[in-house]
Amino acid sequence: MFDIEARGIARKAKPGNFFILRTHEQGERVPLTIADFDRERGTITTVFQKVGKTTHHLGTLNEGDFITDVIGPLGNHSHIKKFGNVVCVGGGVGIAPVFPIARALKEAGNKVISIIGARTKSILFWEEKMRNVSDDLIITTDDGSYGTKAVVTIPLDEILSKEKVNLVVAIGPAIMMKFVCKTTEKHRVETIVSLNSIMIDATGMCGGCRVQVGGETKYTCVDGPEFNGHEVDFDLLMKRLQGYIPEENIAMNHIREDMARRS
Description:
Layout: E1 2-5, H1 7-12, E2 18-22, E3 30-33, E4 36-38, E5 43-46, H2 53-58, E6 69-74, E7 85-91, H3 95-107, E8 111-118, H4 127-132, E9 136-141, E10 148-149, H5 153-162, E11 167-171, H6 174-187, E12 191-194, E13 210-213, E14 216-219, H7 220-223, E15 226-228, H8 234-241, H9 245-262
Parallel strand pairs: 7-8, 7-11, 8-9, 9-10, 11-12
Antiparallel strand pairs: 1-5, 2-3, 2-6, 4-5, 12-15, 13-14
């Protein structure tokens, strides 16, 4: 978790926005969610998982260090109003972007039930932050090390079966969002998802983040990142997310070789 001093972004940030960063002049452009913001301090908060070259490099930075480029807020912010009963689902790192949305929905007068899940207890985070903005909080882990041993769709299906829900917001891995939408579709509950497609320029020009929504091509960076989950082609999204794995593996091998030389 990083707090980044970026006063201009903090002043304008809203739930659902993201930003783009580069860790150095030759670095790739990487989108990260604005998980929180403090307008008085002039900071934005982000939570990331070290997966590829850039996030590993980002993880080497310490308090007081500089990030070369931080640009935002980008994307369309969440549509916040009083819907009634809302369920917010966060899976893995998706807990971070769902937090400001849940908070805003609660402030708008909604009843907010939150479900957060992770593979195991050690990578679950922001439990208290989510509890503070929720009328009820349900925790699941895949291995049963904390909360209920289940995937997030199990308690979601139980909730939808016993009470009226006006909206579901789901953010997490694409496969999780896909099955959340399958669950809500059978209960005919409107569902909003925030897509994590590969992104480069974040202005709608490169086309790298294109997705199929309702049979039409949409660009996550300028048309999203939030969409009607029942209209998203998740299979195509997941296929496109795999598109640069060979190049990502080459980049990670370079990092490992560099670390080996230094040791």
